[in-house]
DUF6265 domain-containing protein (Algoriphagus aquimarinus), 164 residues
Amino acid sequence: MKKSLLSTILFLTCFIAFSQVKQLEKEQEPGKGNVSNLSWLEGFWTGTGFGGECEEVWMPAVDGSMIGTFRFWSEGKLVFSEFMHIVQEGETFSLKLKHFNADLSPWEEKEEWTTFRLVEVGENIVYFHGLTMKREGDEITLWLALTEGGVRTIEELKYVKKSF
């Protein structure tokens, strides 16, 4: 009985997490939206994810783009950081980012970005292909779809808004 209940709870937890992340089909057009609809994302956010501590800072939109930074550390040591850019592209927008090791050596090549295309945007929520950001009060939850060795998982990051 305990094993069955545990299996059911695990299944429901995975189902809920996977349903938080949306994907675009191969030839599907990205959703429509405007970067100005993401003002709820502005600010300094701290929290947890990837088994350590995280921070994100998002600046207000200017000229159809928002700039943000992210850093992750574990056991007091910086592991990696990101430079993020949400950019308007006609009637849609996408999130482009570059990863950096603690010594600032890049993960992506100079001309390459990790790009998340827009699926849809709503009030205090944005769905990118493989990434969801949702604000509730002074908290933001991010769900990120990761695939490693052919296995798909969802990483959840939880942030609270902080003052500088």
